[in-house]
Amino acid sequence: MILHAIVADAATAGWAARNGASVVQLRLKGVTTAERVRVGAEVIAAVGDLAMVVMNDDLAAAETLGVLVHLGQGDAGVERAARAGISFGRSAGTPEEARRAQADGALYVGAGAVWTTPSKTDTGPAIGLDGLRDICRAVSIPVVAIGGVDGSNAASCIGAGARGVAVIRAVTELPRLRALLEIAVAHGGDGRAR
Q1: How many CB atoms lie within 10 A of CB 30?
Q2: How confident is the model over 145-184, as pLDDT tens digits?
Q3: What is residue 18's three-state secondary structure?
Q4: What is the arithmetic mean of pLDDT over 69-82?
Q5: Sign of torsion, CA 75 83 52 104?
Q6: How do residues 81-139 score in pLDDT, each as one tens digit?
Q7: DSSP collapsed to 3 states, 19-87
Q8: What's the average model confidence in pLDDT over 53-67?
Q9: d(Cα 160, Cα 152) in Å, to the nearest integer?
Q10: Which helix (H) or strand (E) holds 113?
Q11: What are phi and psi of 142, to 5 degrees?
Q12: For 151-188, b where at least 16 C-beta lie within 10 A, e where not — what string?
């Protein structure tokens, strides 16, 4: 099970890693690669070996730091990442995008936005649980649900076939989310005992 925390600073990254995040993704918009490298080094130090660190959108920063990179559909760099041997995740809003990401060598797919969210305004319409389920069925690599995910609906994402969830606003709920997801996985994805 993957619990992916999307953060903007080292303090939050360290807290997330200590409180259940298996992946910490640094997402800094509107700053230079040099600033992402600086903050990324702080994140790596704060996280230690508690979680995997991923750089959002910036392949050069990821390469400098020696971490994974997450690339959206509009981000260049898939071929360069493959040539440089940098593992990457890829955003997908449709089964076709997910299949292309897998064919390109993505380590995982970030599927969504599952529900509308103010944290990510550059995505298409919400795909809902049916869209998430379709993406999960389209690929064999892990699918991580993103977009409006919190404690009230995270288990439903697992029930739809996702291997995990990514959170931005709900990062403060990590301990509760981890417990809810563990129950969902143990009970076949929907949190109900069988």
Answers
A1: 5
A2: 999 999 999 999 999 999 999 999 999 999 999 999 999 9
A3: helix
A4: 90
A5: positive
A6: 988 899 999 999 999 999 999 999 999 999 999 999 876 566 678 999 999 999 999 99
A7: CCCCEEEECCCCCCHHHHHHHHHHHHHHHCCCCEEEEECCHHHHHHHCCEEEECCCCCCHHHHHHHCCC
A8: 97
A9: 15
A10: none
A11: -60, 140
A12: eebbbbbbbbbbbbbbbbebbebbeebbebbeebeeee
* CA distance linking residue 131 with residue 153, whole number of Å: 15
Residue 77 φ/ψ, nearest 5 degrees = 125, -5
Confidence at residue 193, expressed as pLDDT on a 0 to 100 scale: 38
What pLDDT sits at residue 120?
Answer: 58
Domains of the chain and any CATH numbers: 2-186 (3.20.20.70)
Question: Which tokens hold the place of 33?
Answer: 């690669």
Q: Helices 33-47 and 10-18 sit at what angle, rounded to 10 degrees?
A: 30
Query: What count of residues does the chain have?
Result: 194
pLDDT of residue 190: 53
- Which residue, chain included where needed, has tokens 């089964």? 95
For the chain, count helices (H), then strands (E).
8, 8
Q: Can you say how many angstroms the Cα of residue 77 is from the centroid of all Cα atoms in its chain?
A: 18
Whether the per-residue pLDDT at 189 is higher than 70: the answer is no
CB atoms < 10 A from the CB of 49, how many? 6
Tokens for 123? Answer: 């995505």
**3-class SS at 11?**
helix
